[in-house]
Amino acid sequence: MFNLATLYNWFHNYYCNFYSSDPDIMNMVRLKEHHSVMVAKYARGLAESIGLSAEEIDLAEIIGLLHDIARSEQAHCKTFNDSISFDHGDRGVLRLEEAGILDALDCESQEIILFSIKYHNKMTVPSSNPDKMLFTSIIRDADKLDIFRNLPPVRAEHNYSPALVELLRKGRVLPYSEVKTTADKRLIRLGWLYDINYQWTLAQLINESYASELVRSLPNAPPFDEIKDNFRAYIIAKLSANP
Ligand SMILES: [Fe+2]
Fold this sequence. Notes:
2 domains; Hypothetical protein af1432; 0% strand
């Protein structure tokens, strides 16, 4: 395993290349640089909580730090919306390969890192070998934890897209492409909570009231009653299951 301090230096220097005199771009670059450092920390904490080895814990931290490497250039598009710029998971893999920063690692670790980064932002993850699935699950949780901690509340009337409401009622994955209104973002966030892999992550999101605030923000009328009941049952089952 290579030196983590060296990687943090490389990462900071890489991001510095995208610093800008445009304050909007600069804020976006700094936001993602900071987010990456926080996600690295959470990925490490999560990996420790599930009893991984010291080397695996380092691997989780590396993936956390590098998962949004392509957000630096995406900030220059003045959007973090992949559908109108580029897929930042795929682009991140490309940039890391070009930079050769992972070359000092063994092939298996490189493959795990690149797979996890490629799929950290996809709606679903194609099944692969257990190690790739493990580290992809870790980065997806660590990423969501930091995102929830920094999201502003959704301020909107109850104007929801029926297609998304129906998908949520059935417990299906919600495609971001179906978001048509500001209020729909509440549904997407609830969908993210269904996509949490580990009790470690879910417990923090519950303790910090993100889940209860989301549930409270939905209407007290059909079909939202059913959506809330299903969600509460999911939380109880997930937190009481064997980790
Ligand atoms: Fe990302």
